[in-house]
C-alpha cells in the first residue's frame, strides 16, 4: 500500500483548509504523536501507552445481536470510543440487523497480527479481516476467497463505529473538507423499496411500514479517501486512510437514537483476494497516564462506620504515600482533619489499586478526600446517612414503572394509561425477540391471536422496555413483602387509585406506598391465573418497531382492542384493525407456577388488613398453583425458555412461603426435605431462603444452619479477596449491582441471626460499592442518590440523556479480557445502565436494612 510519511503530507497534498483548522490539526497530530508502536500483548490485544486495539476479543451476541460491544474496538486514552469493526450489510446497522458469526480467530505473534474469519450463514458469505500494526497505527486488510454474493453487492462493507458523545463538539475532515459532528442527527436519508431490504432477525422489521412497502436508508455525511476525526482533540483524534475504496462517514442516529458515527467502505464487486485496505492511526498523547479514580460512598458514612477509599490507578502510575481528609469548619473553610498512609493493594484486571483508610474520622460534618492534586466532591458523615436513600426509588422510580396507569408528577405526565388493549394469545411456534418464544401449543384455551380478556390491570414495566415479565414481578413482590415484614415501611408519598387507574407522585393518600405497590404487582399475577389459566413467561408487543419505542408508554399501541374485521389503522371507535396489541407468551412451566405460588403466598400476609379480599384470593391461588405445579412435574412436563435454568429450588421457595402463611406442617416438612440438599448444591443461591425460614424453625435447625453460614462466609470471603473492593464483582455482559446488593442482603440476614459470624460492616460494604466505591468512576449507581450519581440511564427517557430518580443501574459490565465499564455519557448500554424492577426492590430492602442497623447502637 502507499505508506503515509506523515499525516500533514496527506493534508497538504489533498486539501485546502481554513487556517484555524489546519493549525489545530497539524499542531495536535504533529506534536502529540510519538514513535511507540502497537505491540501484541499476552492478553491477545494490541497496546501502546494510551491506546488498546481489540480484534474480536468480544463477539456479537446471538440473542441481543449488536450490543455495541464486539468486533474491532479501541480503548483510547482509557475510554472505549470505537466498536463494531466488522463486515456489515447496512450503512448504519440497527441492533436487530444481521450480524456476522466469528468462525475463527488466529493470533500470529511471529508477524504481530490478528486474523478473524467472519460468516453470514444466510448468504454463504465468508470474509477475513487481518489487523497488523504499522507505523504509529495499524493496517486493516479485508480478504475474500470468493467475490461478494450478487445480492450483497453494494451492501457488504467494512464498518468502524465511533461513540457520538466522544466526538460531540469536534470536527472531521474528509479529503480536506471540514465538517462538524452533529449534536443532533441531521443527515440525509432515502426511502428504498422493501424488496431491497436485507432481512432482520427472524423476519422482524424495525421500520413501521404504515401503508407503504419501504424502509429508510441513511446517506453519508461525507465521502473520500482520507477521514480525520476530531483533529482539534488529541485524546480522540483518529486518522483513516483508504488505499482503494472511499471511506464514507454516516450518522447512525438517523435510524435509531442509539446509533453511532460510522466510517464505512463498500467491498468491491467481482473481486477476491485483498479487496480493501485501511490504514488507521489513532493519536496517542506522549507519556499519557489515566487519572486516578478515588472510590468512596457518595451518600457518605456514619461516624462509627468503617471508611475506606479505594484508589484506582493506571498500571503505569505509582501510588502516592499518603492522602488527606478535609472537613468544613464553622468559618466556612475546609481544614485538614487527617493525613494517613495510602497502602498499595496490587493489580486487578488492567489497573493497580491502593487503599486509604480514614475510619478514625468520626466527627459529623461535610468532608472531601484529597489525593495529590485531586480533590473529591464533598460527602457527609452523619448518624442517619441511610434513612432517606431509598425514597427516590419508592417515591418516583416504581410509580413511573407502573403499567396500566396514568402517572403524573407535579407538572409532568410520565405516561398516560398504557396497554388498555391487553392482550392477545401469541402465535404458535414463534421465535420472538428479547428471549420470548411460543411453542407448538398455547397451553391455554385460546387460539393464536385470540383476545385474552381482563389483562389490562396491574404490573410494572420490567425495565427500560414496556413488557411484563412475570418472573421479575415474582421477585419484586417477594422482596417488597420482606421489606414490609422486616421494617414495616409505612412511607406514604404516592396517590394510587386502581379504579381510575391514576397515580400522582409526591401526593400522599393515607396508604403505605409499599402495600399499594404489592397490590399493583399482585393484580397482574392474579389476572394471569384467572384469565389465562396460569402464570406466563411475559406479555410484550408483537413488532420491533413498537419494541424500540421511547417516551410515553401509552403511545406504544393505539390502546384499542384488535378487530380482525377492520383494516390496519382503521377504527370504529371501540376497536381497531391495527395488530399492535401485546402478546402473551403462555407455554406453561412448573418453575413459574411454583415461583408465582410463593410470591402470592407471601403477598397474602402483607395484604391482610389492607385488601382482605385480594389477600384471600392470593392464598387460594398459591395453593392451587402448588398442586398443579406438582402434577406437572409428575407428568414430566419440562420447563421451557431461559427462566427454566433457575428452576432448582422453586418448589422449596413456594413451600416456605406457604408454610409462613398457613402454618401447615405439610409445607414445613416439604421445605425441610429440600433445603439442605439445595444448600449443598448451591450455597449462595439458597442461603437467603434458609435464613428467611430461621425465625419459624427450632434450635436444631439453627444449629445445623450455622455450619452452612460459616461455610458461606468463608467461601465468599475467599472469592472477594480477588478484587480490592472485597465484594462479588460480576465479570459478565450485564452489570453486577444486583449481585452485590443480594450479597449484602444475605450478610444482613446472617448478622441478625449470627452476629458473631457476620459483622454489620459487610452490609455497609455492599452499599458503599453501589454508592460509588467501585471501579471506573465514583458515581452512585442509584440515580439521584448521593452527591454525584448517574447522569444518564436506560429508561423510557433514555433518548433525552437523563434518568428516572431512584433507578438502580446494573453497573459495570465486563469486556474481555480485562475492562470494566459504566458509561455516563451514553445511556443506551442496557447492560450498564438499564434499571430493572427486581433490582430496585432489592435495593429498597438493603437500604432499609442498613438504616435498621444504623439505628441500633453497638
TrEMBL record:
Keywords: Carbohydrate metabolism, Hydrolase, Polysaccharide degradation
KW Transmembrane (keyword) present: no
Domain Cellulase Ig-like, chain residue ranges per copy: 292-374
Top-rank taxon: Bacteria
Limits of the Glycoside hydrolase family domain: 456-790
GO molecular-function terms, A-Z: hydrolase activity
SUPFAM superfamilies given in the database record: E set domains (SSF81296), Six-hairpin glycosidases (SSF48208)
Family designation: Belongs to the glycosyl hydrolase 9 (cellulase E) family.
Name of the protein described by the UniProt record: Glycoside hydrolase family 9 protein
Amino acid at each position: 500500500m502507499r505508506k503515509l510519511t506523515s499525516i500533514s503530507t496527506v493534508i497538504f497534498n489533498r486539501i485546502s483548509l481554513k487556517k484555524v483548522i489546519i493549525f489545530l490539526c497539524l499542531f495536535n497530530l504533529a506534536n502529540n504523536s510519538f514513535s511507540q508502536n502497537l505491540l501484541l500483548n499476552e492478553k491477545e490485544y494490541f497496546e501502546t501507552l494510551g491506546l488498546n486495539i481489540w480484534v474480536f476479543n468480544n463477539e456479537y451476541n446471538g440473542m441481543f445481536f449488536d450490543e455495541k460491544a464486539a468486533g474491532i474496538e479501541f480503548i483510547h486514552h482509557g475510554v472505549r470510543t470505537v466498536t463494531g469493526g466488522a463486515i456489515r450489510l447496512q450503512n448504519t446497522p440497527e441492533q436487530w440487523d444481521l450480524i456476522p458469526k466469528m468462525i475463527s480467530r488466529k493470533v500470529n505473534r511471529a508477524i504481530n497480527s490478528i486474523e478473524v474469519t467472519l460468516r453470514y450463514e444466510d448468504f454463504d458469505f465468508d470474509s477475513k479481516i487481518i489487523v497488523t500494526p504499522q507505523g504509529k497505527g495499524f493496517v486493516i486488510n479485508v480478504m475474500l476467497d470468493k467475490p461478494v454474493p450478487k445480492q450483497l453487492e453494494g451492501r457488504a462493507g467494512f464498518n468502524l463505529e465511533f461513540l457520538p458523545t466522544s466526538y460531540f463538539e469536534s470536527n472531521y475532515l474528509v479529503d480536506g473538507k471540514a465538517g462538524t459532528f452533529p449534536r443532533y442527527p441531521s443527515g440525509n436519508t432515502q426511502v428504498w423499496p422493501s424488496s431491497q431490504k436485507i432481512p432482520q432477525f427472524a423476519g422482524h422489521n424495525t421500520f413501521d411500514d404504515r401503508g407503504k412497502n419501504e424502509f429508510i436508508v441513511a446517506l453519508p455525511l461525507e465521502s473520500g479517501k482520507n477521514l480525520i476525526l476530531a483533529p482539534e482533540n488529541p485524546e480522540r483524534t483518529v486518522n483513516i486512510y483508504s488505499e482503494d475504496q472511499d471511506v464514507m462517514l454516516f450518522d447512525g442516529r438517523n435510524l435509531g437514537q442509539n446509533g453511532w458515527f460510522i466510517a464505512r467502505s463498500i467491498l468491491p464487486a467481482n473481486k477476491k483476494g485483498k479487496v480493501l485496505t485501511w490504514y488507521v492511526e489513532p493519536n496517542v498523547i506522549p507519556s499519557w497516564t489515566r487519572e486516578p479514580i478515588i472510590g468512596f460512598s457518595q451518600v457518605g458514612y456514619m461516624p462509627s462506620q468503617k471508611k475506606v477509599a479505594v484508589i484506582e490507578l493506571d498500571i503505569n502510575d505509582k501510588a502516592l504515600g499518603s492522602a488527606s481528609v478535609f472537613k468544613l469548619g464553622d468559618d466556612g473553610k475546609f481544614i485538614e482533619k487527617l493525613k494517613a498512609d495510602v497502602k498499595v493493594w496490587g493489580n486487578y484486571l488492567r489497573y493497580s489499586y491502593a487503599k486509604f483508610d480514614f475510619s478514625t474520622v468520626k466527627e459529623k460534618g461535610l468532608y472531601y478526600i484529597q489525593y495529590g492534586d485531586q480533590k473529591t466532591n464533598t460527602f457527609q458523615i452523619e448518624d442517619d446517612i441511610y434513612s432517606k436513600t431509598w425514597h427516590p426509588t419508592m417515591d418516583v422510580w416504581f410509580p413511573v414503572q407502573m403499567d396500566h396507569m396514568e402517572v403524573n408528577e407535579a407538572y409532568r405526565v410520565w405516561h398516560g394509561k398504557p396497554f388498555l388493549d391487553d392482550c392477545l394469545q401469541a402465535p404458535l411456534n414463534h421465535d420472538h425477540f428479547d428471549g420470548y418464544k411460543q411453542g407448538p401449543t398455547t397451553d391455554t384455551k385460546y387460539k393464536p391471536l385470540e383476545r385474552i380478556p381482563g389483562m389490562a390491570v396491574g404490573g410494572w414495566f420490567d425495565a427500560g422496555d414496556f413488557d411484563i415479565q412475570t418472573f421479575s414481578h415474582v421477585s419484586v413482590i417477594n422482596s417488597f413483602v420482606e421489606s414490609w415484614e422486616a421494617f414495616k415501611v409505612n412511607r406514604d408519598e404516592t396517590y394510587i387509585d386502581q379504579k381510575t387507574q391514576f397515580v400522582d407522585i409526591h401526593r400522599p393518600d393515607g396508604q403505605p406506598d409499599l402495600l399499594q405497590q404489592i397490590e399493583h404487582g399482585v393484580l397482574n399475577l392474579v389476572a394471569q391465573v384467572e384469565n389465562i389459566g396460569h402464570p406466563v413467561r411475559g406479555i410484550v408487543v408483537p413488532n420491533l418497531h413498537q419494541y424500540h419505542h421511547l417516551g410515553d408508554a401509552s403511545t406504544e399501541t393505539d390502546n384499542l382492542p384488535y378487530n380482525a374485521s377492520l383494516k390496519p389503522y382503521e377504527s370504529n371507535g371501540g376497536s381497531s384493525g391495527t395488530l399492535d396489541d401485546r402478546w402473551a407468551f403462555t407455554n406453561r412451566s412448573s418453575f413459574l407456577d411454583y415461583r408465582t405460588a410463593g410470591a402470592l403466598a407471601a403477598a397474602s400476609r402483607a395484604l391482610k388488613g389492607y385488601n382482605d379480599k385480594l389477600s384471600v384470593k392470593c392464598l387460594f391461588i398459591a395453593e392451587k398453583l402448588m398442586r398443579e405445579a406438582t402434577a406437572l412435574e409428575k407428568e414430566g412436563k419440562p420447563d421451557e425458555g431461559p427462566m427454566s435454568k433457575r428452576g432448582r429450588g422453586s418448589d422449596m421457595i413456594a413451600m416456605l412461603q406457604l408454610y409462613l402463611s398457613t402454618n401447615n406442617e405439610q409445607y414445613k416438612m416439604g421445605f425441610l426435605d429440600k433445603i439442605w440438599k439445595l444448600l449443598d448444591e448451591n450455597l449462595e443461591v439458597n442461603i437467603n431462603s434458609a435464613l428467611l425460614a430461621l425465625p419459624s424453625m427450632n434450635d436444631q435447625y439453627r444449629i445445623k444452619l450455622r455450619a452452612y453460614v460459616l461455610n458461606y462466609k468463608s467461601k465468599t470471603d475467599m472469592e472477594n479477596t480477588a478484587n480490592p473492593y472485597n465484594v462479588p464483582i460480576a465479570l459478565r455482559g450485564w452489570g453486577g449491582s444486583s449481585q452485590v446488593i443480594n450479597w449484602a442482603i444475605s450478610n444482613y440476614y446472617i448478622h441478625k441471626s449470627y452476629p458473631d459470624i457476620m459483622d454489620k460492616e459487610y452490609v455497609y460494604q455492599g452499599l458503599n460499592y453501589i454508592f460509588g466505591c467501585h471501579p471506573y468512576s465514583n458515581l452512585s449507581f442509584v440515580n439521584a442518590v448521593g452527591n454525584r450519581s448517574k447522569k444518564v440511564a436506560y429508561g423510557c427517557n433514555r433518548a433525552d440523556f437523563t434518568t428516572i430518580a431512584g433507578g438502580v443501574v446494573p453497573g459495570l459490565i465486563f469486556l474481555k479480557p480485562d475492562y470494566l465499564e459504566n458509561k455516563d455519557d451514553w445511556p443506551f448500554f442496557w447492560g450498564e445502565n438499564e434499571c430493572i424492577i427486581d433490582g430496585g426492590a432489592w435495593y429498597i430492602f438493603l437500604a432499609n436494612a442498613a438504616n435498621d442497623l444504623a439505628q441500633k447502637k453497638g
